[in-house]
UniProtKB/TrEMBL annotation:
Segments forming domain 4Fe-4S ferredoxin-type: 28-52
Pfam families found in the cross-reference section: CCG
The protein, known as: (Fe-S)-binding protein
Domain of life per record: Bacteria
Family matches, as SUPFAM superfamilies: alpha-helical ferredoxin
InterPro entries: 4Fe4S_Fe-S-bd, 4Fe4S_Fe_S_CS, Cys_rich_dom, Helical_ferredxn
Organism field: Metabacillus rhizolycopersici
UniProt KW keywords: 4Fe-4S, Iron, Iron-sulfur, Metal-binding, Repeat
PANTHER family the record matches: GLYCOLATE OXIDASE IRON-SULFUR SUBUNIT
Length: 230
């Protein structure tokens, strides 16, 4: 156990959730930290000899915590802005990407980095900004085709999932992925009505919204094979 605590191990987390459900734990912070530090990779499931569905337990526990917790006004405002007005709305995500390009283009980025102002941002946003790739221009962003024809003989027809954050902040990776797929024998469609996959919602305990986004994507993609690089 790299964390040195039983509560930061799958078995310990499951026990905490059980005690919370039985009413033996009333302080949510005792459960919150161990759950928040879990990446949710579910690698523990492959190693479990009894097949415990840890992923389902983790998602259900996070959803239950969100329903019980009283968020402070700033945190509640940020969550509502991101989840209701941000990720699922393409125009808003496009605006975010274009704003980041402008932030780089006007050299405001250099000023912010030299002033160390980024270190004061909440939610580790400063650390995230430090590893961001170069933004694409609004003009370049508008030229994304809804269909890319195979280079050579067609072997597969697929729909490519662009994602929300992936498409806004890591657009070049999406483009290179599509080029590679075309070279590998794929006709690639970009479903226009696709939306956020809902992973960020599920990880944050907003399961009802995550399910609604999943339903929208099922409708958008139909029965095609789907590829994502997120």
């Amino acid at each position: 156990m790299s964390m040195g605590k039983e509560t930061h191990y799958p078995r310990g987390r499951i026990n905490l959730v059980k005690m919370l459900g039985e009413g033996k734990i009333t302080d949510l912070s005792i459960v919150e930290e161990p759950l928040n530090l879990c990446l949710g990779c579910r690698a523990c499931e492959t190693a479990c000899p009894t097949g415990v569905e840890y992923g389902s337990i983790l998602e259900s526990a996070r959803a239950a915590l969100v329903k019980r917790k009283n968020f402070s006004f700033p945190v509640r405002l940020v969550r509502n802005t991101m989840f209701k007005k941000g990720f699922p709305i393409k125009n808003m995500m496009r605006f975010t990407g274009n704003s980041y390009w402008l932030y780089e283009k006007t050299e405001l980025q250099k000023v912010m980095r030299k002033s160390n102002a980024l270190k004061k941002l909440p939610f580790h946003l400063g650390e995230f900004e430090a590893i961001m790739p170069k933004a694409v221009s609004p003009k370049h962003r508008s030229h994304f085709s809804s269909f890319v024809k195979v280079k050579g003989e067609r072997k597969y027809t697929i729909v490519f999932f662009t994602g929300c954050i992936m498409d806004v902040m890591f657009r070049r990776i999406n483009e290179l992925s599509i080029q590679l797929l075309a070279e590998a024998g794929c006709d690639i469609y970009i479903a226009e009505k696709q939306t956020c996959c809902g992973a960020l919602y599920a990880h944050s305990g907003e399961m009802d919204d995550a399910k609604e986004l999943a339903k929208k994507n099922i409708t958008a993609f139909g029965l095609f094979s789907i590829l994502a690089n997120c």
